[in-house]
Structure formats: structure tokens, C-alpha cells
Amino acid sequence: MPTSGARPSRIAIIGGGPGGLYAAALLKRLDPSRDITLWERNAPDDTFGFGVVLSDETLGGIEHADPAVYEALQQHFVRWDDIDIVHRGERHTSGGHGFAALGRKRLLEILHDRCRDLGVDLRFRTGAPPPATLATSHDLVIAADGVHSTTRETYADTFRPHLTTHRCRYIWLAVDFPFDAFRFEIAETEHGVMQLHGYPYAPDASTVIVEMREEVWHAAGFDELGEQESIERCAKIFADALGGHPLQSNNSAWTTFRTVVNDRWSHGNVVLLGDAAHTAHFSIGSGTKLAVEDALALAACLQERPTLGEALTAYEQERKPVVASTQRAARASLEWFENLASHLGQRPRQFAFNLLTRSRRVTHDNLRLRDARFTEAVEHEFGCPPGTPPMFTPFRLRGLTLRNRVVVSPMDMYSAVDGVPGDFHLVHLGARALGGAGLVMTEMVCVSPEGRITPGCAGLYTGKQAEAWRRITDFVHRQAPGTGIGVQLGHSGRKGSTRLMWEGMDEPLDDGNWPLVAASPLPYKPGSQTPRELSRAQLTDIREQFTAAALRAARAGFDLLELHCAHGYLLSGFLSPLTNRRTDAYGGSLARRLRFPLEVFDAVRAVWPEERPMTVRVSATDWAEGGTTPEEAVAIARAFAAHGADAIDVSTGQVVAEERPEFGRSYQTPYADRIRHEAGVPVIAVGAISSWDDVNSLILAGRTDLCALGRPHLYDPHWTLHAAAEQGYDGPGVVWPAPYRAGSRPPRTGRTDAPKPRLTLGR
After folding, report:
1. Which CATH number fits the domain that encloses residue 211?
2. Is 754 within the bounds of a domain?
3. pLDDT band at 760 (very low <50, low <70, confident <90, very high)
4. Are 707 and 682 in contact (CB under 8 A)?
5. What's the number of domains the chain is made of?
6. Which among 555, 558, 543 has a CA at the least distance from the CA of 442?
7. Which residues are catalytic?
8. Beta-carbon contacts of residue 395 (< 8 Å; ≥ 6 apart)
9. Domain span at residue 63?
């Protein structure tokens, strides 16, 4: 009968991949009395794939937990430092990366031997009993049964899996010589773009993965070819990379990658491990790494916790954030390759930098440490003067030249009285202008009293408000010369008449409400006020409110005007199919949904001074089913650019209350990247960009032209000045105000070191 507690004595493991085998070895080593049985339906030497890459971090964990396995692995590793990127006949090499790989078959043999030495019962060519049966007869069931996990499907109601199939086809192959680097090669064929990922895993062999978009795969006829014909075609396409060598297969088949995410990882005494619990795209080489790390964490939690339930909870709490971070990086990487065609126009060296930093795990600063020569060459090609980080290169929009690429993002302060900005706004915006940013943006400034979000929102619908804004722009131009100040004009639409943010965000006012209008009569969320659908006459009135506000903004001295067409406010409400249900000329197709926002843009552009730029903020996705698609976001950007927008400020979401954003570092920047390359318009990236290293990376990779940061500027008004100081930069891209120059170096702190002993006296 099963025992209780976190030290289970009878353990069943379903699946004989690296994760399941390593878990068996660890648990048996920790307690030799355990009865551990592992079922694997395939033969011991069956494996699909060729090489496995492990990081130094993972190897360190293995070395600490099981030196015998580590020593066996060390004898078979192939190590290298370089990455080669071949694009349009040019090869660029970046060094200092540090990889270790070995054959997957060899890895399995090492783990088989270790399990047998320890007394684990390995049952090959044998399907495991049903999970429910094993859960009754064993203390613990570890489901390491892969991406197509039967266990996960058996308990789907508990695990709640989310499976996402992606847009590329790939095939896992090998070649009989070792690449001298991790190689990425791009082939532009008559059918579309294809890519090769290759790396050595033995003194005489390399893994080769060929990948392409589904439509390219079909166009090239791979869907009609057998295995041998496919690999011969791939060998011909990438003959230069392969040196004429034939490709080898191992029951290789074209497949599409599936991202697996589970809400929960355990059900009673059944727990998921490795690909059964999660997957991460092969382009960051982490599948085996994650499975091995799962095994290490699970064994440690079972050793440390008093009960099995607590151990499994601790295991999930420890691993989930790590896996989520890796999956975000993997998602960024796979989407970069899915959209590879949009980057092909970049110069080869910048293209190589873009590829290397695609997952956001490798950054500009990190790459500079690994390979300063390569990074400096990319900077020189980009146009960075010597010693100038990319973020401190200037950027021009019409008649406005920004001294650097940092934007203080629009942030609602909810501190105006009757729409009039006061001393708080002067200090808030003035401080950030003194803080060194190239452009400081106001919060959304409302075009009418009814267009406010809250009673504390600022406006530009009266002369008094314009005079108050003039006081602020004069301060910025006088005290922070070289810093631009922009105004964001908007109308709240159905998201108006709510409380101040800290009193209940998006919650209706207790009293003093004003009527709301929107594209369609849809409340923002349950309990919200239902807006009236705008009539044609009201649309004209609102358009005129925007133009009147723009005229006041011009007289108030703003350098740039941004039209707010994002976040579910009025103009955004016309763009999204989730919020625009109109049946007239302003609803239905995207062209019709664009009609009113473009009418407003044209009217504002007509009265805004010709030499001053205009930008448009959009929500590139609604993060909800049936909402704006990335393709539509590109089309929206193209439309505004065709009407004279100088840049698109690319945000996401906040359009519908039921959204499910995929939060993470720089999580919105891929949308800006896509719009920049496909619509051919400058972009401002925004969304959890929190470090100067991120800004440098995004700018130098060509994924954005400007970076807007909000919360970092709330934490530190002088964020840009401090970024310059931390990078040792002192040039025209950022200027310390004269009264602050004494603080341009970090202040000294008390000494924390102690005098070292001069003598060591024996006893």
C-alpha cells in the first residue's frame, strides 16, 4: 500500500526521456530503499532527434546533485563559443557564448546506466498502466510522458492544459561533420524564406533543424514528399552550409511546434514533469534543460517538505515562474523566426544582432561583454558615434530632432482641477524633462468635459487650461533645452465618468456622473455605465472638439501631438471589432472601423503646424478572442501613416475588461517590431521596458525607433541621466542641468571593506 508523507517509497515514472530517467536516478540515490519503476513504450536505443544542448547552470545543478552523472556527461561533451549567422551571402560571427552538447542517444545511455546501477526498474517496450491505476498502487506517479502526455489528458479537468500550435513546420535531422559554431543560415527561395539551425553534438556529427512557415512548406511541395525526398531537398537548399554532405534522418518527420502550458502541475499524488508540463521552442534549446531542472527541483522538494502535498505545491511554486520566464523568451524567439521575412531587409550585421537578441535573454550589454568587437561593429554600422550607446543617438520626426531615444510615456495623474493642470503637473513633467529624456509626453489630455476618464483628468477644452499648459511647456523649453514635450489628445468614450485610479480603477463614480458616448452602446464591464451610440451629428461635434483642442495645444507650445487611439477609449472603440458593432458606414470591415479615427486624424493634422510631428497610439492586440489581430494592427498603422502620421506608438490591450494579456519583460515590443518592418513607419515601443540595456537592445536591433517608459520614470524622474552615468556616457545625447552636474556621478558610500591582516601567526 502507498505510504504517506513527502518521502514516497513506491514511485511510478511514466516516460523514459531525460527528465523521467534523471528523476528516477535522483530519487533512488536520495533513498536507496525506494521501489522505483519506470515505463517506456519505446526500446532503450530509440530516440527522436540527435543532439542535446545543456547550459552551464544546468550542469552545475547536475554536478552538485549527482557527480557520477556529471562526470559521465563531461566525457562526451562537445564545447564551442561562437554563433555564425549567414544572411545574403555574408557570415557574421559572435563569440563568447559557451555551449555544451552531446548526442541524445549518449545522454540516454548514461542515464540508463546510472538508473540500473542504483537499482531502478526500467521497463522498455512496455506501456505504463493507466495513471489512475498507478496512483492507487504507488505513493507518487511522475508523468514525464512528453508533449502528447496521456496523463495530462486523463486529468485535463485538473491540469487545465493550454496548447498553442504555431505557424512553422520543422524537421529534425543530422549531418556527419561538426559545425565549428552554432550556425543560423537563411535561404530566400522562390517559395519563401527557410532557415537552418545547426550545432555540433559529437566530434563527427551535428544536429540540423530546417524550419519554414507553413505556407512556404506547402508552396515548396514538402507536403507531398516522403522522408528521404524531404531530406534530399533540404540538403540541396542548404548545400553551402552542409559543404555538400548528405543529411541523415531518424524517423524524422515534419511537425509544427506546440507550446504547452498547464494551470496546475499535480493531481493528488500524480505530478507532471518536462514536456508534459510545459514546452519551450527548440530555438532557445531548453526542452531537455527544463526537464532536468524539473527533476532536480522535484527531488529537492520531496526531500525538504514534511508531506507529499506540500512538496508538490512547493515544486510547482518553484518551477512555474522559471518556466514561465523561459516560455516567454521561447515565444519571442519562435515568433521572431515565424516573422523572419520582415527582417530580411536589414543590413546583415544588424540582422545578426537582431537574431542574437531575439529572445531578450541576450541583450546589448550582455553581448558587449561576450564579444565587444562584434557589438562595436554593429553600433558603428548603426551610426553610433564612438562611446555612444544606441539610446543616446538622435532621432528626427519632421522638424523635431530628439537628442535621444527615450520617451516619458503618457501616464494619467488624475490631479487636475476642472481639467486645469496645476503645480503638480509642472513639477511632475518638469522633473522628467530635467531628467534627460528626449521626449516627455503628457497624460491623455481630454477634448471635452464629457471626454474625461475621471474628474481629475486634464483637458484642453478651455483657454484657462491652455494657459496652464503654456506655463509647463515654457518651463521645459527654458530649463531643459533640447527636450521635446508632447501632448496626447483623447476622449474617454465608454471608459469615462469613473473614480480616481487609487479610489477604484474603472469603477463608476458614486455621484456626479456624466453621460457617456461610444461607437456602440456596450458597457466596459458589468456595473459600468452603458454609453449612447454616437450619431453622425455627434461624430462631427467630437471631431471639432479634437481640432479645437489641437489648436490650443499648438498655441500652448507643444512640440508634438499624439492622437490616442488605444486602450478602449473613444477612437480605439471604433477600431476594435469587439467594441464597434455599428451597421452604418463606421462599422463592419476594418476600412469602415478606421473611418472615424482617420477623419479625426485628418482634421487635427490640418490645423496642427506642418513642421510639428503627429503620432498615433494604437492597441495592436486586444488580448481577447475576436479582437484586433496583428495583421489588422499593421493595416491600421499603414492607414495612419498614409494620412501623415510620423510614428506609431504601439501599445496593446485595455480595450475589453475580459482581456488575457501575456505580461512579461518588453512583452509588447514584438508588435512594434512587426509594425515597423511591415508598415514601414517609425514606431515607439512601450510595455515593461525597464532597463537602459533593454532600450539599447531594442534600438540597435532595429525593432523600434523610440522607447517609451512609464513606471521607471515614476520610480526615478532622472532615469535617463542615471542611465548615462551608469554607462559612463557624457555626450550630447543627454545633458545634465547645470545645477545638477555635481550629482552626475554616483555618491560615495561608507567603506565596507576592512584592512587585510598583514601576518598570519601560527600557534
Report:
1. 3.50.50.60
2. no
3. very low
4. no
5. 2
6. 558
7. 569
8. 401, 402, 404, 405, 438, 682, 705, 706
9. 10-338
